[in-house]
Amino acid sequence: MTKKQLNESVEYLKNKGFDSPEIGIVLGTGLGQLVDEIEEPIEAHYHHIPNFPLATVEFHTGKLLFGFIENKKVVVMQGRFHLYEGYDLLDVTYPIRVMHELGIQKLFISNAAGAVNLNFKKGDIMLLEDHINLQGGSPLAFKNVAEFGDRFVDMSEPYDFEMREKITAIAAQENISLQKGVYASVVGPQLETKAEYRMLKILGADAVGMSTVPEVIVANHLRLPIVAISVLTDECDPDYLLPVNIQEIIEIAGKTEPKMIKIFKELVKVL
């Protein structure tokens, strides 16, 4: 990755009308409905943006949208990139750097995850308070990283405290049940074994997924305040583990998504 590549991506988007967005939003698996809330949308498909990776997962749409939510300029990533698709961590996090160069000052991330904490149920929403990186690498482990920020990034508080407090207040006000916990990020694409779920619980994870952590690391590298929400789509009880049903996971994500949209819209409003 070079500054020149980033500049080419940003220049293309600015010419399309992506004008100084304030907030960036990354939408996870099965969580694409927020785009319906964007006013005056401008679209840029990933395969048209210079140096951008391409989305390969069938339920990830693959476009960047610019417009207004609650009268604030936003840029929304519909379809993200994952290690399990064969990308490297620089590809996975490239869009975060592009959104930052466009001017975003805050970043919201959503994902679909499995509930490792058995007090959490499918259909719940979890606010990420911390995470465990089990992806076996770092998006900052490249030779010229110092051109983009400090090599050694503090991760003592990766998720912005102020925005988390605001989300807690919004959830209470909207009568949305909000869990809070630790997200473990694995490579995938296979789901976990019973033994792996037991391991995750011992490690202190409340939920597990295959995304988000690389983007969060890069946001911290850029000193970009970030907040993340998991929509819990399945319950990972190693003693009663049923074969996974991806279609059901997508359906539960879709049914729970309106709560996430409400939280994100209200958060945009109060920032």
Task: Please provide a written account of the structure.
With 271 residues, the chain is an alpha/beta fold. The chain has one domain (3-270): 3-Layer(aba) Sandwich (Rossmann fold). The protein has helices spanning 3-16, 89-102, 161-173, 194-203, 213-221, 246-270, and strands at residues 23-27, 39-45, 63-69, 72-78, 106-115, 125-133, 178-185, 207-209, 226-235. β7 (178-185), α4 (194-203) and β8 (207-209) form a beta-alpha-beta unit. It starts with a helix and ends with a helix. It comes from Croceitalea vernalis.
Put the structure in a nutshell:
Pathway: Purine metabolism; purine nucleoside salvage. The chain is of the alpha/beta class.
Shape type: globular
Strand order in the sheet with the most strands: 5-8-7-6-9
User: Could you report the average pLDDT, rounded to the nearest whole number?
Assistant: 94
**Terminal-residue CA separation:** 32 Å
Low-confidence stretches: none
CATH superfamily: Nucleoside phosphorylase domain
Structural class: alpha/beta
CATH class: Alpha Beta
The CATH topology is what?
Rossmann fold
Q: What count of structural domains?
A: 1
Helix content: 25-40%
Largest sheet: 5 strands, mixed, barrel
Which radius of gyration do the C-alpha atoms yield?
Answer: 18 Å
Number of helices: 6
Order of helices and strands: HEEEEHEEHEHEHEH
Function: The purine nucleoside phosphorylases catalyze the phosphorolytic breakdown of the N-glycosidic bond in the beta-(deoxy)ribonucleoside molecules, with the formation of the corresponding free purine bases and pentose-1-phosphate.
Domain Nucleoside phosphorylase: 23-268
Pathway: Purine metabolism; purine nucleoside salvage
Family: Belongs to the PNP/MTAP phosphorylase family.
